[in-house]
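Box 3.1 A note on notation
Throughout this textbook, protein chains are presented in two layers. The first layer is the amino acid sequence; the second is a token string describing backbone geometry. Keep the layers aligned when reading.
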Amino acid sequence: MKVKVVNKSNHRLPEYKTSGAAGVDLKADISESIVLKPGEVQVIPTGLYMAIPSGYEIQIRSRSGLAAKESVFCLNSPGTLDSDWRGNTGVILANFGKNNFVVNPGDRIAQAVLNKVEKIEWDEVSTLDNTDRGENGFGSTGI
């Protein structure tokens, strides 16, 4: 699927690192390092502007290595880039660790995954069918 992109960063376009990779790594398009203190949240620009085809979205997700090793996550994950969005793709990074985390220019900070989107067609009814679970919510099926 071709996605039109304007690259205003100083970095090459994102690419798949392996043949089985679902996502491409997004890089920080910043001129100097940014320190994310524990508990801090910042939007880091990527310098990428995209025209995503209608019927698709790009999801922005945490990189597993940053999450596991540094406790740095993307908030609102997965975040959605809609097909009509044309702005600079930003990544909402949050430091849940105990130490400062430094984002350097060009660091890989998130993953982008292209997904097909189905539109909801609501079928308003007065009741729903019963299931064994019913309205039992969070944690009702065990931990």
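The mean pLDDT is 95. Strands lie at 4-7, 24-27, 34-36, 41-51, 56-61, 72-74, 79-81, 88-95, 101-103, 108-116.
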